[in-house]
Write a structure and sequence with these properties.
Rossmann fold; alpha/beta; five-stranded parallel beta sheet; elongated; 48% helix; 5 strands; 7 helices
Length: 196
Amino acid sequence: MKTFIKILLLFFLIPSALFATMYLSLGFLVSLHSTKPEKADVIVVLGGDNGPRIEKGIKLYKAGYAKNIVLTGIDSRYYSPSRPNWRERRMLEAGVPKKAITVDIWSETSWEEAENTADLMDKKGWNSALVVSDPPHMLRLYKTWKQSFEGSSKRYILVATKPKWWHPLFWWRDPFSKQFVLNEIKKNIYYMLAYY
């Protein structure tokens, strides 16, 4: 009987406990690199959401963290400076001057957002950026922006939104949060193979 219990512990309970611990910690892993904002040259508000990133960018701008904003993830096929998309309109409605907003219509992926922003920062003479996105996006952003800024004096600070659906320990309870985390794990693996 003791042998059976040892085998049960060794081959079932211990691996199950390890798997459960790893699964539950995924929320902490993907959101680990978010930090508090600091003064910077530009606030980069990444595309791909329905408003919290824009609202965070507005708050950072109004709090004086930077005088410039870059909006990414705006499809060039549907964008015209004379007809701003909803993200740019929201910024303008909140009192951000049009001259402070740069719209990136070329980036379609997180990798392109980092690369294109690095190029734009060179052109504008900006050395530091606050990068705004959702908590589960932080691990991939950390690796991507680190790679894009490698070999330069530019620096970036990742600033997460605070969505109601997010909790780093109980991420799996909310369907949207769960899907976001699991997608980020897949995307991190893909980025590791394709870019890093």
